[in-house]
# Entry
Amino acid sequence: MKTAYLKFDPNKTLSHINKEIYGHFSEHLGRCIYGGMFVGKDSQIPNTNGVRNDVIEALKEIGIPVLRWPGGCFADEYHWHDGVGKDRKPILNTNWGGVVEDNTFGTNEFFDLCEKLGCEPYLAGNLGSGTVRELASWLEYITHGGNSPMANERRANGREKPWALKYLGIGNENWGCGGNMRAQAYADQYRKYETFAKNYSNPGMMKIACGPNADDYFWTEELMQNLKPWHTGAITLHYYTLPTGNWQKKGAALTFDDDEYYETISKTLYMDEIIAKHGLIMDKYDPERKIKLIVDEWGCWYDVEKGTNPGFLYQQNTMRDAIVAAANLNIFNNRSDRVIMANLAQVMNVLQSVLLSEGNRLVKTPTYHIFKMYLPHHDAELVKTSLAAPELEKAGKTIPMLTYSLSKKNEELFLTVSNCSLDEDCEMLIDPEYGVISGVSAQIVSSEIHAYNDFNGNTPVKLSDYNGFEKCKNKLIATIPAHSVASFKFKV
Ligand code: AHR
# Structure
């Protein structure tokens, strides 16, 4: 067994871990919304205003803090006015499967859902094919509390009070599906659209510009030269983990060998490097860090499951995804001085979802259990640590054996650790610089690396209590089994 040594000062905290780091993303894509979360009021499946009750319950259980909608690429083709009121106009979803949607899930349904979930709505506005007027009137419809044409239309559609809106994205992937723009051209468009994007009940609404794809540092450089903190609250970053790195053959969700597993881990850990490098560029133009970073699309992207619509991006989710989720959430926690929100792609039935459905059956994926395990990190303070840990030489790469983060809330410390090794356990010495560790409780998600939860009620990957630790004087000695994610709550 290998050994790792974690040292920390329980009183030295570095940054606030915004609960929005644990955010989600729901696009009009495949069965994320229609036939997924939203089954319609007349469905046999128990629902509230068309949204499955079991989904609402499951998302509340992981404390969903924010939900992004309606896309993704779909956002830059979405015309909100077709999706409100009694006579809704259908829309052709050109990006995802070429299906026609009847627009029964629109603005009212989305905001009502967020209220039910108790989460912040995060809108992605249409800059690519919409007009400035369209975006402005959408905000008037949502946020105007007085007498105005759009507010009155909202009232006629059954909603008296305006909804709360804290986050507005202006366009999505405008370097690609959102208009294939050059960075400077997008920056100019952004400035124009944001000028007219008025929130009538919350003037402090954060306006969010479309940031780079993965390691496109040029985009960040150009954007930061042209955007100013008084009109930009944050820029976004999108980075997906493809096991093979090849968009034509990304790799399967369920079948992968050891090398492909380690490739996946190595690729997912690249997230840390790109956040750091984009951060350096951002600091050059905004040394006071007024403009924040939001990773509003992340997760594993595999080849779709056989027999499913290639445009629907449906994939299963194994113990490997649990390790990927743990690694990324640890990275976001450790970089919470920079990253204020992250949104896993996507919440249900698309890419690395937390929930999968088939008819009335609902599966909580391995990724779901990691989000549940990490709940105590929400709105906690990141604690300063140093770790001496082994490295793995695998698939021609050097990979840290452990990923971890430590936070503090209400005098309680919370440590999450993932062991990325497929075959070696790791003993971790958890050592406070002063004081004595007490009141320890632990949980674990651990299973065979290919294991997944299915629709027949087999749930090998779930959260369980864990007793693989002992106290030794003032320290804690814990065993982190190979390919597992463990958490420890304690006091010092
Ligand atoms: O999440 C799926 C797609 O990935 C989104 O629509 C787009 O923004 C990204 O390319």
